[in-house]
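Work through this:
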Amino acid sequence: MEQKQTIAIVVIIVVIAGAVAGYMIMFPAIPPGGTIIMGTTDTVEASIDMAQSYDYFGWEIITALSSGLVEIKPGSAAGATDIDPALAESWVMSEGGTQWDFNLREGLVFADGTPFNATVVKYTFDRNCNLTGTGLQEPDGPQYNMGYADIIDNVEVISNYVVRFNLHIAFAPFLQLMSCAASYMVHPTYAPLDHYVVYTEGNPRASHPNGLGPFILANWTRVGGSDQQMRLEKNPNYWNAANGYPKADVIIIQFYSKDTTLTSAMISGDIDIAYRHLSAAQVDAFRENSDVRVWDGIGAAIQYMCFQQNIAPFDEVEIRQGIAAALNKSHVCETVFLGNADPLETIVPAGMAYHKPSFEVYGSGANYTFTREMFALHGYNETNKLAFDLYYESSGHYPQSADQAAVYKSDLEASGVMTVSLVSLEWPTYRQQRNAGTMPVYIYGWYPDYIDADNYGFLPFASWLNMGFNQTYPQAGIDEYNLWVDGRSATTDALRQAAYYDLQDLQAEQCSMIPLWQGRTVAVTSTGIHGVVLDITVSWRHWLVYWGAPATTGP
């Protein structure tokens, strides 16, 4: 989701000299009762109401306080076989993929004793997604922006513990959609139909509509709209409590305004976990310290180079291909991100189901011979160079944008057939120029709404990117769109894979955008913290984390 990109980059690259190297970190004795203190520079943007919340940290708190019908298996690629039961024990798809029946767990209750049943599920979706027309007025939440109502026609109560979703379309990644925080349950008593639930000072229960999750919100302190602390306490009524979850009794989340103060808190032992947003330099220094564990995981945030194909010569596929071949993506990952990002060779991130690195067709590193051959077809060479503007945003919406742009300029000009002028714009103006179609070449980013190739595969022809898709390469664009539709409506995993593989191959051939890099996820913890899982979901699973014997080796 482009709206979440600012907070979605897991490691923001800010070089802090001398951060933590050489310090001996003294952790206090493990607090009684299994209390874990997490430090973060993240914050709740608007609320922790899933009908409004559309930010990374808001969703993380929702998944700690509520549950969905299903979950993505920790450490998996979020594919067809990676969906675990949660509030639903089982499910059946029928009617060519347009009908889904979920069999719910029986005997579950909210913290106040209110029973969970099919009526709660229907209320949740009718309210959050405004399916009945009597829900939230002027919807502006994630369900509205993610097109829930375009996918879901209605929700039926079949019996007390069977609920049916009738879909407008056959939607293959429906279970992946059900696993994201926007699909989690509300407590009907605390989730009014006509307004969002926002922070209420001194009353944590009135500050959110969630329930049925591994934790209960015992305290939430904000000052002047800025988060100070949250306290999560084990929910004895959690659906997976019998299996020992959550593993910690209490999670205290301490908020810091700067990465330097977060680092200092980790050094002094004031916190047990430091997560979001440590700089690359800070992380590298922690790697040298045997008193902590540095956990590395794959990320889902990506960036890519876009071409406005209504501006010549970027309407020519050979020009776009030549630029793709001239980019050595390892350069930006190594020099700007200090190895805390990875080159990306397709629009679907590595580690996700249906990923195929189709852009590898242009070779490893820069292939300037191919670039010059493609440019020569349109009259560009060492004496008649293609001169163009490369745009990037300058307000911190993306990490180290200016440094990134400088590396891309250097790579492209090293081909000998290009002259690149860098143009920076503040984020509001940047989006205006995107909408106006005036930027010939520009850098953009994406963070997923739900974890599936469907939520990435459409990007090269996304209407809001305004790259001239319909005007300049209509048949190839239509073919891309049709393959994307084939993938999202396929009734078998094999058919989905075939469609998405073909789609990524065609996108590499057309080069309407060039994938650049994929972020990573990093956390630093005490050596006694266990259970951290950093996978393609980029979801922090509070309920898996626990105290144990100090680790003597890395994760």
